[in-house]
């Protein structure tokens, strides 16, 4: 395998401007200087994609969605999702882009205090700092209404207790944005709240989960054992936690769609390239419809998912949180499914080579499945669409 990734089939994007297309081309060019081999070498060595991260930061790509006055590019999720998708097309999907600038950067930029913005946004924008995001809990899983990580007041401080699981990149992030709950003084009910927890805060323990996933970002189980935080650790308004949470979750879904689409386009390009030249009968294998049609189907699925992803990003950047919610869920669903099918078909198209390390596709089978499970599973999106879009009753 060479690092000169074959051109990924792609249609002109309906909602994209000339600037967007120029951004795609520039990111693609940076990504192709690294390529799949760089990424798999880093994973094999148990390292991180620091060089690529630094180069992307230098070019201004990592903070392209963050406000200019805090060192960002002044763009939106549309631009950041282009960065992630194109790095994926080059074989280097950077999961931390979903978490650090997209979720945490967005939440702080929209709801943080002036001090929090000044402290965090310039570092998130120039890539010198990262922030992880922890919502999933072992006993709550997909039912995030059931999370029990609790913050209680002690004087002006907050004290957090609880557990989180599958939180990505905690080891390489200076802090984690933790979703906890505080008690409503009036009703006694628990309501969601967001806290910035520094990596070295006393009582904040982490252990790495042994994942069968070839990715530079590791997943962690976290224990918060009376983690004491100053009042300024609370992000935004204590009474508007849910709204603030959703402000971060829509970008998360849009970015996960971009993450999946980058991988899908990379895999499809490899398969198409192989099918054009691999010949075991009279014609290259790509002439057999049993090979060509599933690849064509994968291309259609990818392009449809890209349209919905662009629509979701467009709505989100236009300030339509409700409209973006439905589109972001649908985009994540469509992109996750497109990626799982495209990667599976790509591996199959390469025959035995699909399972070799040289072609680097087999490890994508697991990576593509992440987009079906996280941050919200395929079934939970189907539930959302059943209830929210179609008005069907709930079974749970
Ligand atoms: C690689 C990776 C990285 C991750 N990174 C992060 C991170 O950075 N931060 C973070 O907070 N979390 C992270 N997660 C966690 C991820 O968001 C959860 O795995 C996901 O939300 C699903 O929760 P669960 O694993 O507990 O599955 P469960 O909730 O136990 O679900 C198991 C299965 O049951 C199905 N199911 C559950 N409820 C229903 C229902 N009502 N109807 C139909 N089907 C249902 C699900 O669809 C799924 O197939 C990550 C996960 C992975 C794999």
UniProtKB/TrEMBL annotation:
Keywords for the protein's UniProt record, in alphabetical order: FAD, Flavoprotein, Oxidoreductase
Acyl-CoA dehydrogenase/oxidase N-terminal domain span: 17-127
Keyword flag Amino-acid biosynthesis: no
UniProt cross-references to Pfam families, sorted A to Z: Acyl-CoA_dh_1 (PF00441), Acyl-CoA_dh_M (PF02770), Acyl-CoA_dh_N (PF02771)
Domain Acyl-CoA dehydrogenase/oxidase C-terminal: 241-383
Residue ranges annotated for the Acyl-CoA oxidase/dehydrogenase middle domain, each copy included: 132-227
Family: Belongs to the acyl-CoA dehydrogenase family.
This protein's name: Acyl-CoA dehydrogenase family protein
Organism of this sequence: Streptomyces gossypii
């Amino acid at each position: 395998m060479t690092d000169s990734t074959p051109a990924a089939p792609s249609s002109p994007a309906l909602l994209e401007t000339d600037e967007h297309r120029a951004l795609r081309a520039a990111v693609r060019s940076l990504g192709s200087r690294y390529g799949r081999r760089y990424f798999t070498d880093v994973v094999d060595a148990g390292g991180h994609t620091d060089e690529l991260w630094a180069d992307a930061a230098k070019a201004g790509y990592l903070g392209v969605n963050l406000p200019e006055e805090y060192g960002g590019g002044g763009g939106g999720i549309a631009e950041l999702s282009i960065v992630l998708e194109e790095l994926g097309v080059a074989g280097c999907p950077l999961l931390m882009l979903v978490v650090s600038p997209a979720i945490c950067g967005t939440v702080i930029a929209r709801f943080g205090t002036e001090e929090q913005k000044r402290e965090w946004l310039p570092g998130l924008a120039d890539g010198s700092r990262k922030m992880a995001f922890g919502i999933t809990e072992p006993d709550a899983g997909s039912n995030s209404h059931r999370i029990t990580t609790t913050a209680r007041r002690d004087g002006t401080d907050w004290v957090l207790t609880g557990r989180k699981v599958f939180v990505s990149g905690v080891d390489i992030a200076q802090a984690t944005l933790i979703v906890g709950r505080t008690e409503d003084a009036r009703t006694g009910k628990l309501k969601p709240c967001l806290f910035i927890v520094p990596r070295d805060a006393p009582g904040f323990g982490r252990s790495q989960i042994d994942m069968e996933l070839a990715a530079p970002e590791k997943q962690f189980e976290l224990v918060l054992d009376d983690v004491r935080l100053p009042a300024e650790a609370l992000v935004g308004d204590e009474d508007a936690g849910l709204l603030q949470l959703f402000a971060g979750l829509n970008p998360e879904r849009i970015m996960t769609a971009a993450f999946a689409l980058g991988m899908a386009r990379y895999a499809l390009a490899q398969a198409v390239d192989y099918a054009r030249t691999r010949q075991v009968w009279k014609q290259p294998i790509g002439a057999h419809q049993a090979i060509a049609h599933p690849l064509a189907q994968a291309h259609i699925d990818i392009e449809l998912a890209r349209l919905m992803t662009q629509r979701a990003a467009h709505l989100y950047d236009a300030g339509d949180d409700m409209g973006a919610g439905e589109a972001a869920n649908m985009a994540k669903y469509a992109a996750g499914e497109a990626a799982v099918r495209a990667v599976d078909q790509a591996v199959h198209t390469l025959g035995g080579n699909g399972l070799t390390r040289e072609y680097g596709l087999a490890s994508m089978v697991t990576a593509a499945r992440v987009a079906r499970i996280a941050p919200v599973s395929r079934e939970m999106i189907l539930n959302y669409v059943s209830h929210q879009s179609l008005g069907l009753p709930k079974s749970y």
